[in-house]
Structures are given as structure tokens and as C-alpha cells.
Amino acid sequence: MFDSFLRRREDEKRMIDEGRLPPGQAVTNKFPVLHYGPVPHFNPDTWTFRVYGAVESPLELSWEQFRALPSTRMTLDLHCVTAWSKFDTQWEGLAVRTLIEAGLVRPLPNARFVIQHAEYGYTTNLPLEIVLSDNFLLAYRYEGQPLTPDHGHPLRGVVGAVPGRADLKTPYLWKGAKWLRGLEFSAEDRPGFWERAGYHNEADVWKEERYG
């Protein structure tokens, strides 16, 4: 236990020296589980993923169709609003820009935001520019393995910091929804579950925008 504590302190100092640890955060080598409500059941035969709203045509994909699309891998530093940070995590999934580049989704000119819709009616919101950036992914694999149920299996939005990419806006981790079922493109911003409960709408980790 003491060795683990020392290793975490060493990691924390290294992340501070590299400018990768945001204010108010502490390094963890674990992956804490935090969510509201029960873990939903996944049935691959009935599961669907929808893209709709301010797009030319709505899109609906089965799990098989979703997994057949080209995958993207990302290395992300994760920053939770509860003050833990986990570094150099490995993710695989579908980049939203892949849907657009393939012509499967064509946002309308007035689309400026994306609302993530998850199981049980849960939502969270992000500007379109972040959803299309190199630090947002529709993820189905973590560290080379399928997501576990309590981390969002089969699909979650994940958003974090890309090491060495200070140009990218980095929101706290709650801005990626677990158990994701769809994306709604929108001309208007629409705060989601935690935003309506008092969390900051933009959630910039470097500005410590935890609460509104």
C-alpha cells in the first residue's frame, strides 16, 4: 500500500511538471465508478443508435452496423469533476467526424451543439466543435478490452485531454455519457441531467468550471 502511495505521488509530481494536472485535481491509478441510477441491460439484437435533429437525414444503426464502421483509437487524460485524474488511458471506438466524412451524417448549417442521449433518459450536452475534435469518442473498448457494464458497456461518450494538445478544449469526464443510445444535433444548447442539477454547463477543467 505504501509503495502504491509513493508511486501515485511520483506520478502526480510528474504530471504537474509536464503541465498535465489541472488545478484542484489529484492523480489516481484506479478507474473509479461514478454514475446515477442502475446499470442497464444490453441486448445486441435490439440495441440501436440514433443520430437526429439538425441533420439532413436521421440515421439509425444496429449494434452490428455500428461496430462495422471504421474505428479510431485515442489516448486521453481523464479528469473527473470529483477531483480525480487518470492519465494515458487507451480508448477505441467511433469518431463522430467519421460519420460525417462517410456521408452518413450531414449536419445542417445551424447545428452548433450535440446532445448525448443515454439510457433512462439521461442527457448531457457539448458544443459541436468539441464533439468533432480529437478528444471526443463514441467508445466501446478501454485498454484493449470491451467496456465493462459499470463503465458504460456497450457504448459511452468519452472526453478528455490529448497529451501534448493544449489547443483542444477539455471538459470534465461527465460530459461523456455512459450507455449512450443517440446523438441529437441542435441549433440551441440544452443542458442535461447534471447541468440542470447545478453543474457548470461548459465544464472546462483548466478553469475549474465544476459548478454553475
UniProtKB/TrEMBL annotation:
It comes from the Bacteria. Pfam families: Oxidored_molyb. Residues 37-194 form the Oxidoreductase molybdopterin-binding domain. This is Oxidoreductase.
